[in-house]
Amino acid sequence: MNIINFHLKNFRNYDDESVTFVPGINILVGNNGQGKTNIIEGIYYLLTGKSYRVQREHELLKWDKEDFHLYGDFIVNHHKIFLESHFQDRKKRVKINHVPCQRLSDFVGTINVIFFSPDDLIMVKGGPSERRRFLDLHIAQIRPGYVRLLNAYNKVIQQKSALLKSYNEKSLKSSQLQLWNIQIVELGTKIILHRDELTKRILKVADEIYKNITSEKEKLTISYYALGKKNSQDAIKEFPDLLNQKMDQEIDRQMVLVGPHRDDLQILLDDKPARLYASQGQQRSMVLSMKLSELELIHQEKGEYPLLLLDDVLSELDSFRRNYLIKFIETSHIQTLITMTSAEKQLESGAQFYVDKGHIRRREG
Ligand SMILES: Nc1ncnc2c1ncn2[C@@H]1O[C@H](COP(=O)(O)OP(=O)(O)OP(=O)(O)O)[C@@H](O)[C@H]1O
């Protein structure tokens, strides 16, 4: 999957700017605060309908402007796709090959993208929600309908939470809660199965990559904990009972305590929780291994590598891991956009683009 060209209008610090990329490595070079990350964010937004930096689109608008427009040509499976996203009056409109797309969730996954930045360390260091997000973002790219499933589940959780907050008498609640619980089991089971399957597939690839990156003997283990259990099949069988057992507690605490919205991905290094015991360097290697596994899995699934966006990643890696990553990208022919400052050690390969105060210029030679 390749991006051929990209256009930004009134997006962040860009007025009206176009750039044409090359199939292999594309390096966006410039001083701090010139707009390198904004290009990456714009492409990610165009492909996923979301920014990874802000919740509200409003913040993506160039200051004092009323609408922004992003568009570009992509190649997927030898077919050209023209994709546009327009944001105005708090609404976003997406068009694929000039045809309006009714639901964004139907589009997500058509063109796959993997984004990687130093903030991804939060996958290891942060709380369970970060790890669930990692799984969900990946599944959304390879399983059509997953975004709709997640949205439906989250809506049920919100409605059940609202019910828990609104009543005082226990007798009133239990029958109504049962109705929501049936839906939680139905939708939640599907989410657990997707996440469990993905975790097992990531594990197969990630441990191997981790060993290559570190040339160490440590073992990387990743397991999905559904409803607090290591075995997802057991968790699914016990799901309705667990909901019943926790009903009084849910009523007391006025929150939904059972379901995949509270699940976690356990990441171990030599059987010890990586979050607590792994060094910063080991954690970086784990995240890199998991990200590269994502690339491999999308390749297995779709027959093509996704577009890879690396924001400020290279400066964080030592020369061995940096070289490993570049070699991986080159040998797999993955189209990659890399941001780096002018002060960093430049790569020998790749087309260079100079980014300066919201302008992008290809550097020849
Ligand atoms: N909504 C906005 N409207 C106009 N300018 C904005 C907006 N949001 C951010 N900016 C500007 O964009 C610039 C930051 O761009 P970006 O984050 O892409 O920097 P960068 O080139 O990646 O820098 P670094 O190397 O420091 O990461 C800043 O100058 C900031 O003031």
Automatic annotation (TrEMBL):
Binding-site residues for ATP, renumbered to this chain: G30, N31, N32, G33, Q34, G35, K36, T37
Subcellular localization: Cytoplasm
Span of domain RecF/RecN/SMC N-terminal: 4-349
GO biological process: DNA replication; DNA synthesis involved in DNA repair; double-strand break repair; SOS response
Cellular component annotations (GO), alphabetically ordered: cytoplasm
Main location, first listed in the record: cytoplasm
Keywords associated with the record: ATP-binding, Cytoplasm, DNA damage, DNA repair, DNA replication, DNA-binding, Nucleotide-binding, SOS response
InterPro entries: DNA-binding_RecF, DNA-binding_RecF_CS, P-loop_NTPase, RecF/RecN/SMC_N, RecF_2
GO molecular function, one term: single-stranded DNA binding
Pfam family, one: SMC_N
Similarity field: Belongs to the RecF family.
Functional description taken from the UniProt entry: The RecF protein is involved in DNA metabolism; it is required for DNA replication and normal SOS inducibility. RecF binds preferentially to single-stranded, linear DNA. It also seems to bind ATP.
Record NCBIfam families: recf (TIGR00611)
Protein name: DNA replication and repair protein RecF
Annotated organism of origin: Desulfosporosinus acidiphilus (strain DSM 22704 / JCM 16185 / SJ4)
Protein encoded by which gene: recF
